[in-house]
């Protein structure tokens, strides 16, 4: 099964942003047993999008189109896909209801143009929206065969969430090839040499395996440990990769801050939205890194009420978490500090980071750790530890 990606947006052609959705898709398509055959970026032009789809249809059985599904006049993907499929558009009542709910939540009147997000090609099926814009899938007849087109919003967390939920399972059902799965450990505050030492026995053993590979990718605030496995189907490949991932995670211990392709702040954002929680953040040692991370996912205003950055002081993380929660009228307060006596029971060593999470009630969750490294490493890893702690508590419903 051949798969291609068509990314829509003038900003991709001018170099304003990188096409991270296409790169992400390439890795995930391998998991399904399908193979990537082409990437194409086109501007916000209806005819050019149609021409791009025609070109890709000669090279692929399934096309993923990302972007151009919003409410503005340059969001033309739905019209172009309908042209490509030779059908019109139909307004879907369930999507109109979804948009009504979105604008009620925003306490704003809905612009008339926003309703175009409720239109999908006639005969297509809706991919339930994660944000305001829905995706859809439609089949088009081409030269005696069928080309399937999945259209997804271009915002990365929406694109990837819908692809994981709807598109990749569809590819698995349609594929009969060898699957390849990559699992990723995100490690903060440790260098590649330390990680390599910790995993030396494991990497030596995998050197003779032909179905699992382990490698590293260093980034500014973390090192990614990537485990790739092949198998006759995604389930077998995932089982092989997961076994190695769990062993590597055990060896690396608390240096692991998150697992798999999404950034930690994206996982936290999804968990906050799923629980309907709002949050406010107070920071001393991490100097705004936590609040900046939480503000990175699109529409962060859904859950992020505000943040405070202060110089190191005597207040404990728990006190700061309560203060910021109440000041911004949030459900959750999260504070990260250089540990104060109220956190440690005594003077804190340099590199000691404390954090506290306070929900709507009186319960407080406190943690602290000591991080070896310069101030930048302590800040980056301290912020990551606090966010991971929050993610785990949201995942187990221990907040709220």
Explain what the structure shows:
The protein is α/β, with parallel strands linked by helices and about 400 residues long. The chain has three domains: about 1-175, MoaB/Mog-like domain (Molybdenum Cofactor Biosythetic Enzyme, Chain A, 3-Layer(aba) Sandwich); about 180-260, Alpha-Beta Plaits, CATH 3.30.70; about 265-395, CinA-like (Maf protein). Helix content is about 40%, strand content about 25%. It is built from 14 helices and 17 strands. It has helices at about 10-15, 20-30, 45-55, 75-85, 95-105, 155-175, 190-200, 200-205, 235-250, 265-275, 290-295, 315-325, 340-345, 375-395, and strands at about 1-10, 35-40, 60-65, 90, 120, 125, 135-140, 145-150, 180-185, 210-220, 225-230, 255-260, 280-285, 305-310, 330-340, 350-360, 365-370. The mean pLDDT is about 90.
Identify the overall geometry: globular
The level 1 CATH classification of the largest domain is Alpha Beta
CATH homology group of the largest domain: MoaB/Mog-like domain
What is the averaged pLDDT score? 88
Report the structural category: alpha/beta
Strand content: 25-35%
CATH topology of the largest domain: Molybdenum Cofactor Biosythetic Enzyme, Chain A
Instruction: Compute the separation of the termini in Å.
Output: 45 Å
Helix amount, in percent?
Answer: 25-40%
Q: What is the tally of helical segments?
A: 14
Provide a compact summary of the structure.
The model has no long low-confidence stretch (mean pLDDT 88).
């Amino acid at each position: 099964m051949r798969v291609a990606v068509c990314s829509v947006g003038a900003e991709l052609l001018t170099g304003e942003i990188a096409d991270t959705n296409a790169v992400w898709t390439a890795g995930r398509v391998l998991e399904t047993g399908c193979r990537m055959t082409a990437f194409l970026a086109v501007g916000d032009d209806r005819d050019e999008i149609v021409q791009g789809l025609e070109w890709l249809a000669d090279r692929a059985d399934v096309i993923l189109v990302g972007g151009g599904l919003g409410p503005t006049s340059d969001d033309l993907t739905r019209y172009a896909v309908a042209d490509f499929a030779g059908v019109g558009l139909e307004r879907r009542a369930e999507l109109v209801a979804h948009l009504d709910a979105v604008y009620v939540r925003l306490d704003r009147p809905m612009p008339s143009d926003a309703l175009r997000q409720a239109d999908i090609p006639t005969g297509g099926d809706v991919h339930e929206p994660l944000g305001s814009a829905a995706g859809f899938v439609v089949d088009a007849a081409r030269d005696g065969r069928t080309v399937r087109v999945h259209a997804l919003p271009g915002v990365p967390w929406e694109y990837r969430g819908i692809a994981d939920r709807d598109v990749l399972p569809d590819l698995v059902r349609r594929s009969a090839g060898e699957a390849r799965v990559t699992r990723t450990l995100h490690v903060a505050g440790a260098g590649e040499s330390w990680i390599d030492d910790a995993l030396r026995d494991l990497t030596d053993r995998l050197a003779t395996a032909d179905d699992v590979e382990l490698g590293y990718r260093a980034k500014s605030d973390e090192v990614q440990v990537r485990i790739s496995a092949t198998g006759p189907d995604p389930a077998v490949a995932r089982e092989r990769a997961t076994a190695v991932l769990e062993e590597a995670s055990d060896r690396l211990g608390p240096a692991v801050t998150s697992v798999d392709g999404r950034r930690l702040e994206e996982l936290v954002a999804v968990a906050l939205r799923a629980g309907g929680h709002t949050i406010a953040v107070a920071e001393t040692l991490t100097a705004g890194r936590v609040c900046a991370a939480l503000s990175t996912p699109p529409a962060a205003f859904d859950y992020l009420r505000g943040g405070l950055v202060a110089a190191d002081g005597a207040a404990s993380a728990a006190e700061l978490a309560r203060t910021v929660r109440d000041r911004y009228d949030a459900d959750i307060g999260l504070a990260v500090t250089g540990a104060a006596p109220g956190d440690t029971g005594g003077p804190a060593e340099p590199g000691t980071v404390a954090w506290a999470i306070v929900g709507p009630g009186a319960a407080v969750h406190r943690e602290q750790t000591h991080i070896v490294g310069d101030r930048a490493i302590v800040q980056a890893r301290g912020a990551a530890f606090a966010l991971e702690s929050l993610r785990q508590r949201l995942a187990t419903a221990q907040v709220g």
